[in-house]
């Protein structure tokens, strides 16, 4: 049987890197894509290929897909994994940054899917694996834009699944829980940058504490666990529509399905409420808002 060809975005780190390595172990021809092409040496060392690609840059996405098609004539599996967390109170996040969050987490995923679909349709076969999150089902304060993108990936993937079924193409959603990667530090940094000295400063500190605790906890999951699930879904003839991983993620998604909003709010509040120390610290950090300055004539 001909070797299956997979393209994995966000392969320079975390879940994407481990997925590329896992697919190589499963016998796929693997192309890892990311902006930091130099960070994919492990994939190249294991027999894979590295492509420099920015999922906000149409030309780089087209060039990457063309390169693979020229070499192999096909892409059987696309793992849309590239993404980051843009945190901060909705009031504080510039709309340009919100647009960028959507460019990377949603439009990049959609554009790359557009580019691989003609080939998959022609062969009446292929699998699109979209990396969502438990954050595509639940929510955090100061996470409005990140969650908006992941909720969007959930809805987009549902439509796409039924749209592509008649063409023989499978669409799978992966919902990871807290996974130990570069994601947490990037998300924490964005929360502090945007809201660390605004009216939301205490909530920003509480969020950072909660994200840090999830990252440091001995129970935190390593990315190879998610990679194993992705590889299983990519190789399945009839994959499930969604895979929440690890078990704790499954529990959270299950609870969200049965609990009313207010009950979920209470749980979220218990995790993300600022402590007395965080409230005190935030009072010192809080700077006057630009609009307040104008209004008071200071
Ligand atoms: N870690 C978690 O707890 C967790 C939980 C649920 C879902 N997820 C999701 O899992 C996916 C992978 O995240 P991760 O945890 O593995 O984080 P990570 O270690 O930060 O990896 C993110 C990857 O995305 C790539 N990326 C970011 N912006 C990009 C762009 N504009 N163009 C191309 N590639 C870009 C990065 O590569 P370059 O910077 O080199 O381009 C990197 O390889 C994300 O979609 C994330 O939202 C993560």
Automatic annotation (TrEMBL):
Region listing for Disordered, in residue ranges: 279-298
Keyword Oxidoreductase carried by entry: yes
Pfam families (alphabetical): adh_short
Domain of life: Bacteria
Keywords per UniProt: Oxidoreductase
Record-stated family: Belongs to the short-chain dehydrogenases/reductases (SDR) family.
Gene3D superfamilies: NAD(P)-binding Rossmann-like Domain
Protein name: Short-chain dehydrogenase/reductase
A GO MF label: oxidoreductase activity
């Amino acid at each position: 049987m001909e070797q299956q060809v997979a393209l994995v975005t966000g392969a320079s780190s975390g879940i994407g890197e481990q997925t590329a390595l896992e697919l190589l172990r499963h016998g796929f021809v693997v192309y890892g894509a990311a902006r930091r092409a130099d960070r994919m040496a492990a994939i190249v060392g294991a027999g894979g290929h590295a492509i420099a690609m920015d999922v906000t840059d149409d030309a780089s996405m087209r060039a990457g897909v063309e390169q693979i098609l020229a070499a192999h004539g096909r892409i059987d599996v696309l793992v849309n994994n590239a993404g980051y967390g843009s945190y901060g109170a909705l009031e504080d996040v510039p709309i340009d940054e919100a647009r960028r969050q959507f460019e990377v987490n949603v439009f990049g995923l959609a554009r790359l899917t557009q580019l691989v679909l003609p080939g998959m349709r022609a062969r009446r076969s292929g699998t699109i694996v979209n990396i969502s999150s438990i954050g595509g089902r639940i929510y955090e304060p100061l996470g409005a834009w990140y969650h908006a993108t992941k909720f969007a990936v959930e809805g987009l993937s549902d439509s796409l699944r039924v749209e592509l079924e008649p063409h023989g193409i499978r669409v799978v959603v992966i919902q990871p829980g807290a996974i130990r990667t570069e994601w947490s530090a990037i998300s924490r940094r964005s929360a502090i940058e945007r809201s660390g000295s605004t009216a939301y400063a205490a909530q920003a500190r509480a969020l950072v504490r909660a994200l840090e605790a999830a990252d440091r906890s001995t129970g935190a999951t390593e990315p190879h666990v998610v990679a194993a699930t992705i590889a299983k879904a990519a190789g399945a003839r009839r994959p499930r529509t969604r895979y929440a991983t690890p078990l704790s993620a499954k529990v959270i998604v299950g609870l969200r399905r049965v609990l009313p909003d207010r009950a979920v709010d209470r749980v979220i509040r218990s995790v993300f409420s600022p402590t007395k120390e965080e409230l005190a610290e935030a009072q010192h950090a809080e700077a006057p808002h630009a609009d307040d300055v104008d209004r008071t004539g200071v």
